[in-house]
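Annotated sample (chain length 323).
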Amino acid sequence: MHLIDRIFPIHSDESFEKTALEVFHFQYENNSIYRSFVDSLGKANPKSLTEIPFLPIGFFKTHSVISCTPENVELTFLSSGTTDSTRSKHLIHSASIYEKSFEASYRKFIGNPEEQVILGLLPNYVEQGNSSLVYMVDKLIQLSQSNLSGFMLNELESVKSIYTEAISSGKKVVIFGVSYALLDLAEKGTDLSHALIIETGGMKGRRAELTKEELHQELMNGLNVPFVSSEYGMTELLSQAYSNKEGLFTEPNWMKILIRDTNDPFSYVSAGKTGGINVIDLANMYSCSFIATQDLGKIIEDKFQLLGRFDNADIRGCNLMVE
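Output written by the structure step:
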């Protein structure tokens, strides 16, 4: 069985670690940028997850981070960003791997799209183009097979009528939305009490930045929903985690979060302690599966919590607001 075919069936910590170490060696051999980074640290032979070097996420802004040949790239995703910022670039070897990853996670954590009406309130992502989030939501909309599903740019007044029609037909409504578009809806007092709201971050200078708790409270009040979910995903990843009503995120079995010491990037803190988020995304086999993000968080039991960003990090649409 090929290595990529062993990633999605992972079911235990032991099989995760074994597969992750195999993926490390594959990427060390096939990804020149990652190999140079690993060699500079002298850590080419890790024996456990915590010994694997994690590539700083900023490399995706300055280099082509791929574990395949350029002619074998099917898609290029770009991060959202302001006009004066450099956008991260993720070269995708296989669209089908991305689709398999996000569909499996969505079905596990959110539900079956065939039973839903799915709306995308993602105007800035649609306008900027080459968005991995738009690609994902578009495929989920297609899977829903509903003529009510679709993207909405600035037609916020139509959301209520689509929602009402969907609910009356027995469908669950799922709305992916950037923060500022959802706040616009909330300020109109749009009652979406039976919808699942999944905010994806992204004020992009259009509104004052809010903490995650402040944002969700305003959305709950304005949209009359019991809680707001979040999606933790980013251009540089092919997998997503989703938060529950407590605001804690759960990742799929082929994705794992480690919390590094903020003062020592090669050390890790214990559960309940705050640190930098390192992501292992084994679906990222053909780019880099080991990424040191600019996000802060902590592990709580078998879930993780987002707490903000490093002070010098760019404000990015990766699901986090800063105070």
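Annotation: The chain has nine helices and 14 strands.
Annotation: The chain has a mean pLDDT of 90.
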